[in-house]
Structure of Acyltransferase:
Amino acid sequence: MVRKRLDWIDQTKGIAILAVILFHFFQNYPERFDLVVALDRNGARFGYAAVDIFFVMAGFNTSYALASALKTANLTEISVDWKLWLKKRISRLYPTYFLAVVSSLMLYQWFGHLKINSIQNFILSCIGLAGYEFQSINPGFWFFTVILEAYLSIPLIFYFCRGQTVKILGLGILVAALTKALCWVLPQSSPSFWFLLQNNFLGSYFFQLCLGLYWGFVYFEKQSFRRIDWLAAIGTFVIGIVICAGMVLGKANITYMFGFDVLLSPILFLGLYALLQFLSQWRSLQWGMSFLSLLGLYSYQLYLIHQPLFVVALRRLNQLLDLPPYLHLGFSVLVVGLLLTIYGFLFVKTEVFIRKQTRKLVSSQA
């Protein structure tokens, strides 16, 4: 049995990486006039939500593939060689990451922005442990660290939950609740607060990962989402709106990551699924859907490489161009978009070449 590729999965990841790229563009844009500040502030919400979707997708793709393998082998219980499974995942993650490290260092070196303040942090970043204090090379490398934590955790999740999907979802809810509760208790001046709350620790995305693991099995069986999935997602979203409104009225500095991210993720994921299913019916939109699919296919690579390019390119354009603010912004969007397209294309081609040479070397030594 050949597992059918689901276009809406690639398109969902395409929307997510596009949201992240736009957020980081305005975050790094050097001229802080009103429009840029507004786009940065509002884009942050979409950027954070997009990262949540990536972790739902990581879980979903994993369980959907496992369900497909079970059906092919006519098995009723999950039986996986987790050691081999992890080896395959890590062998896919690390070559791209190491290439991203090298390309980021080359960009900074060529444009004179390479500064290493801590050798320890630099080494930790190079080996993929770019946590809260260790983002020495590329601020986007935290994503690799947390996605690595996610894959290392998946075998443990299935072991403790005995492969029972409802227990996996329950575990995700429990860990998310404990993580957010700790954030409420800890002072915001504490490094532990930011480690737990923000983008450096799997706890912030554990529910999203487990939700994806749960829904991957559900979708494989039904080839759609159930009424109960929609009702639960809408219910948690309404609760999240109430909590968020209360936090805003209470003048909390951070509203999204105190728990609204957990309550928003289910409806956001299902909403994107419904939207993409609807748009796929329109023949005139196929070019746009194909573009989103392409972005989704290379979303991991784009996540790892785009921020250093923004840093060096936007600074350089700001030095070279003497234009009115809005014209400067529009021109920068076009130029940086073109540069990212070229950079991404060359990066992917180099990655494919390295993987082919590695496979040849392994085959010759076998």
About this structure: The mean pLDDT is 87.
